[in-house]
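sorry for the late reply, my laptop died twice this morning and i had to redo everyting from scratch. anyway the thing you sent over, i finally got around to it. pasting the sequence first so we're on the same page, its 213 residues, then the predicted structure underneath. double check i copied it right bc i was rushing
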Amino acid sequence: MTKADIPTSIKLYYYNASFWRGDTLRSALYLQGFPFENIHDKEKLDELKAKGKVPFGTFPVLELDGKILAQTPACAAFVGKLGDMYPSNDDPFAQANCDEIICGCNDVTDTTFSAFKAEDKKAAMEKDIDPKEGRLHMHLNGLNSIVCKDGSEFACGKDHGLTVADLAVFWMFSWLKGNAMLPSGFVLSFANLKKIHGNVEKNEKIQAFKKEY
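ok and here's the structure:
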């Protein structure tokens, strides 16, 4: 992406909550030094909906020089391409892998939320984390298998460094670790995801971001 392609106005609409979908975009913009308007006021979110600018009825949504972009994987890819947090164009497989990882984080989230909505939440979660047939175990195990394929601490490999995929895994893993319904040993058993989390956690800019946001 050339400098001419970089929006002069970046507005990020997301709920007034810390969650990986919004934090991935916020932190990627912050780490790359791109100024953005962090909009989380409910009235402004509702106003955007009323204008018909929330195509899928939910957030995050990016407004880029007036143009609207929705869906977390698409927003993350765009933000990553603004700087150097998305695999280079000469490695289309790594780019697809980056998207794949973020889509995997969506699957993990959707499955977890389904258990939260169940009448018997504890039973639903115990079923989901079962290593043989559990849907959440399947998603986390799948995600764990497609990251750090070169043995490094980077989701898409050392050659690509820190990407939006690393940030997505970091924030999602942090959310899961803090979930009282999930045994801590279960979450920490996915070695590659844990490795990514540790690598991002020690990043000084991430620490600065956490203090500011």
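The chain has a mean pLDDT of 96.
thats about all i looked at so far, will dig more tmrw
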